[in-house]
Amino acid sequence: MNHRFTTWTRRVLVALGLALVAFLTTEAPSWAAPASCTTSCSSSGSVSASVNVASSILLSLSASTLDFGSNQAPGSDSSGVPPIVATIGTNDSAGYALSVSATDFNSVIKANNLSVKESASGSLANNLQSTSFVPLVEAGNLILAGSSAMSGPSGDAYTSAWDLHIPANAPGGSASSTITYLAAAN
User: Fold this and answer.
1) For the chain: N or C, fewer Cβ within 10 A?
2) Which class is 57-185 in CATH?
């Protein structure tokens, strides 16, 4: 039995010796430091980074009400109301359009009895000038202004002065309308 054990032990030792010789004579793996590094070694790699930023547009108004006053005479114009400042901020490189629409006050005082004149830090549309009032379009949007680029860091400001023509046949009592500003991406 000693003889078998000795033979078996020899075979194992020979196999281990051959494996060691094979290991020592093979090339180092690619992750191993090269043999020429003597002082300091380094390695680098890179990755690609990306992001997709969503386009956004924000409209803020300086007031939530526009009061043309009480006891207005039929056939008169009421234009002494404080203006509404619409500020638009967007990161959309295509820009935006600013429009306004209104509902009828009642069956006589229609949306097109409202007129607006604009002044702005951006470009105005529809020949809106700060010296003339333009009536709203009945059942539609009036494009006030717009831009073909993103807004400045503090937004683009548009000031709307309003005038309401009260028809001569307007009934007595209160009437109201909803004026809607819309900032839409181009």
Assistant:
1) N
2) mainly beta
